[in-house]
C-alpha cells in the first residue's frame, strides 16, 4: 500500500500524541512526555480496535500511525505488506509486530459493519469489556461512529480517536482544547481544509 508522505507525517504527529496516553497520568496531563520510548518498558499496553465499518481510508490511517510509531522506536521496524481491509491489517499487526510497549490484540477487533442494530450490540459488548475487565489498556477508535460510541463515562479506558471527520460537530469532543473526558483524545486540525487542498495539489499537480 503506497502512502503519501503527507499522510505518514500527519499520522506520525498523531503517533506522538498517542504516546502521551501511553505515559503515566501526570505526564499525559502536562504533555511533558518524551516522544521516544524509555530504555525499559514499565508495561506492555494491550490495544483494541473499534470502527463503524470497513473503509479504505481507515487501513491507510492505521498503517501510517503504526509506521509513525516504528520511526519513533515504539515498535520494531517491519515492512507491512499490501493488505485489503482493516481486519486483515489488524490481524497482521497482531501476529507480526514486535514491541516491548505495544501489543495489538487479535481478539479485540470490533466493527459495526455500518449496521445500526449491530452497532448497538457491539458498542454494549465493548463497553462492558472495558468497564468489567482489565484485558484492554487502550482503544483505537477509527471514524465518527466509533468515536461517538466510546465518548462517555461508562468506562475510563484511554481512547484514541482517529479519522473522525468533524469531532466537534459530531459531538465527540466539546472543543479543540477539551474532549470533555480525561480518557478521550481526538485531534482537531484547524488547518485541515488547507491541508486537503495541498494534498490534492500534491497528488494531481
What is the gist of this entry?
Helix content is 43%, strand content 14%.
What overall form do the CA principal axes indicate?
globular
Name the helix and strand elements from N-terminus to C-terminus, one letter apiece.
HHEHHEHEHEEH
Given helix and strand content, the structural type is: alpha/beta
Strand order of the largest sheet: 2-1-3-4-5
Helix content: 40-55%
Query: Low-confidence stretches at least 5 residues in length (pLDDT < 50)?
Result: 24-32
3D structure, described in words:
The chain is an alpha/beta fold. It is built from seven helices and five strands, in the order ααβααβαβαββα. The chain has a five-stranded parallel sheet. Helix 1 crosses helix 3. 31% of the residues are buried. Residues 24-32 have low confidence and may be disordered.
Q: Keywords for this structure?
A:
205 residues, alpha/beta, five-stranded parallel beta sheet, 43% helix, globular
Task: Describe the protein's topology.
Elements: H1 5-22, H2 25-30, E1 45-51, H3 56-72, H4 86-96, E2 102-111, H5 116-132, E3 138-142, H6 144-150, E4 159-162, E5 184-186, H7 192-204
Parallel strand pairs: 1-2, 1-3, 3-4, 4-5
Helix pairs in contact: 1-3
Amino acid at each position: 500500500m503506497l502512502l503519501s508522505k503527507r499522510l505518514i507525517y500527519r499520522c506520525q504527529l498523531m503517533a506522538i500524541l498517542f504516546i502521551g496516553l501511553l505515559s503515566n497520568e501526570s505526564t499525559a496531563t502536562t504533555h511533558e512526555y518524551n516522544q521516544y520510548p524509555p530504555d525499559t518498558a514499565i508495561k506492555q499496553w494491550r490495544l483494541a480496535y473499534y470502527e463503524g465499518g470497513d473503509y479504505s481510508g481507515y487501513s491507510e490511517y492505521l498503517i501510517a500511525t503504526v509506521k509513525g510509531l516504528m520511526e519513533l522506536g515504539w515498535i520494531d521496524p517491519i515492512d507491512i505488506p499490501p493488505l485489503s481491509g482493516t481486519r486483515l491489517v489488524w490481524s497482521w499487526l497482531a501476529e507480526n509486530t514486535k514491541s516491548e510497549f505495544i501489543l495489538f490484540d487479535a481478539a479485540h477487533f470490533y466493527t459495526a459493519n455500518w449496521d445500526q442494530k449491530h452497532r448497538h450490540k457491539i458498542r454494549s459488548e465493548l463497553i462492558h469489556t472495558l468497564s468489567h475487565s482489565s484485558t484492554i489498556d487502550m482503544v483505537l477508535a477509527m471514524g465518527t461512529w466509533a468515536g461517538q460510541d466510546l465518548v462517555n463515562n461508562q468506562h475510563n479506558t484511554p481512547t484514541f480517536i482517529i479519522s473522525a471527520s468533524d469531532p466537534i460537530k459530531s459531538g465527540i469532543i466539546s472543543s479543540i482544547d477539551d474532549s470533555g473526558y480525561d480518557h478521550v483524545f481526538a485531534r482537531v486540525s484547524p488547518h485541515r481544509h488547507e491541508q486537503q487542498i495541498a494534498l490534492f495539489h500534491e497528488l494531481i499537480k
